[in-house]
Amino acid sequence: MTFKTRFAPSPTGPLHLGHAYSAMLASDMAASEGGEFLLRIEDIDQSRSRTYWEEQIFDDLDWLGLRWSKPVMRQSDRLPVYENALDTLWARGLLYPCTCNRKDIAAATNAPQEGAPLLGPDGLIYPGTCRIRMQGEDLSQRPRPKNEPLRLDVFKAGRHVFGPKTPMGRFEERGEGPNGETGIITFTPEELESTIGDVVLSRRDMGTSYHLSVVLDDAAQEITRVVRGQDLFEATRIHVLLQALLDLPTPEYFHHRLIRDEVGKRLAKRDDARAISKYRAEGVSNSDVRAKVGL
Ligand code: GLU
Ligand code: ZN
Description:
By secondary structure, the chain is of the alpha/beta class. The chain has 2 domains: 1-76 and 260-295, Rossmann fold; 78-221 and 241-248, HUPs (Rossmann fold). Helices cover 35% and strands 15% of the residues. The chain is built from 11 helices and 12 strands. The protein has helices spanning 17-32, 51-63, 79-91, 102-108, 129-133, 154-162, 189-195, 210-220, 236-245, 276-281, 286-292; strands spanning 4-7, 36-41, 73-74, 95-97, 119-120, 123-124, 150-152, 169-173, 183-187, 200-202, 225-229, 252-256. Strand 5 (119-120) and strand 6 (123-124) form a beta hairpin. Helix 6 (154-162) packs antiparallel against helix 7 and helix 8 crosses helix 9. The protein is globular and about 65 Å long. The chain binds glutamic acid and zinc ion. Residues 98, 100, 129-130 line the site of zinc ion (ZN).
């Protein structure tokens, strides 16, 4: 199997130093393993994606000296693949419709158990309101709703795929999570429910979600090592669960440190000051950019 890494930006703003670090690190790893570096445009959020940003991504990466294998995958070309996976999960009774908004979730969450975390990778941990409301109904016998958000019952799904006795999901972390987590990482269905909650797999107006697409796309591109920022470490358990549910291989993961500004704040899309295009326009060289991020 060829060693493959990828860079998967969303064309919703300029690439900044943090993106450059991620892309160069993934490309360097592919080169040192004699493998391939791939690119994927994560444009499922059509309300925020722009061709302008996509073109600038190509220009920036090219200027950074990166070369990637063709073809470039584009998520907006893959909507039927996502639909198919949702049909599979729906037929197995693992999804349920939920129209709770942020306010509803906050209201339902206001009496947390002591010590229980409130926030998961997608924000407030969903307390399962709609799942509990629909308990006992066999939703899989109904057609899958197309215009309502669908959530994954993570506890049921975890039991389903990781076995009833000592159910455990696992993945190999080659880098480090935000608290130094590394090596073989394991987790139980109970932990999924209490620290992540039932995630949305199909968003309104999108027909999919980041979690569902990223898992299907990494598998389709045959990525063997996912290199990305530590901010996505927690979400990895959901990705591993989805891989098991959809019969997809689990790649190795390498979560890297985040590039921060002078006051220690992580860079955001709107951080134009550190946009690659800005360095490019100012005549900074790409090896200076490498040095700036410590590569
Ligand atoms: N598209 C995601 C982002 O821009 C990256 C997803 C990933 O690397 O898994 O943050
Ligand atoms: Zn709900």
